[in-house]
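Now for today's protein.

===
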Amino acid sequence: MNKILKDPLLWIFLIFSAYPFMPYIGSFISLGSELLLWFVFALGFNLCLGQTGLPSFGHGAFFGMGSYAAAISFLRLFNHDAFVMPILAGIVLGAAAAALLGWLIREKKGVYFAMLTVAFTQVCFGIAFRWDEVTGGEAGLSGVLRGAFFGLPMNNPIVFYYFCFLVFIVCAVIIRKISRSCFGLSLQSVRQNPLRSQYLGYNIGLYKFSVYTISGGFAGLAGALYCLLTQSAYADVLDWSKSGDVVMATLLGGGTVSFYGPILGSLIFVICKNLISSMWVHWALLYGLSFVIILSFFPTGLMGIVKKKRNLEPRLRGNAPAQEQTRREEP
């Protein structure tokens, strides 16, 4: 029981379960829904960056494809009362696109891997921006309505918030299970020493392909939820800047050293984008400066500061130094 109470994920769930009832900030229900889908997006992305060490700077493509898949399936394929099918379409298309790209670049490393993912994102952006018959081109797709789900009116912002909250709970538990499984530990081995992992018999290319596909599925899910949140889909979500946002949020929070880093980084990013931007038009300058300053002094991000402090505490108490943990995430 004591171990459960010390689980940070439990406290995150409790805080966001009460979000709609919090003073002042609780009135921004759409902001809360956006936070939750960004948590899913960033946690899924961190399977590539933090867990496997893959510099995927084109994850916005899968997010955008999930958004377009949900919009197109709602407007042109299924009944306008459909709610689940657009979300499933987003997951499938996001995972399929990630599988295609992941198979093509599975043997690439470093900057070559990163630049190919960026190029793929821009190709997708160009197609969405120009293909008027399917994507609506520059005007995008609008008119997406949130139907009922098991009799619950999803057009109600609070009901939709708790649906996103439920999706976040399921995804967070699944992603943490993946991170702590034998598969997840193998991904850490690939990140730390790919050559030694290959000598031990690991199929490096297959591991990269697998985790990239899984991560793309979570990005597609987040994109589909974003489509339902905004009730539209535009080419902007496919731009390389969307990929840069999730990279910056993950690194700022400390996703390379902590499972919870992407959640913290996404929280800071979304709040800056939505609340600070309403008070100051140059909010990106403040966010960018904080990103540069924090990573200059603490390359492992905000959660890296926390972990460093926790490792110093035994020494300050006169105890033996804590042994370096082999696993990334906290208990």
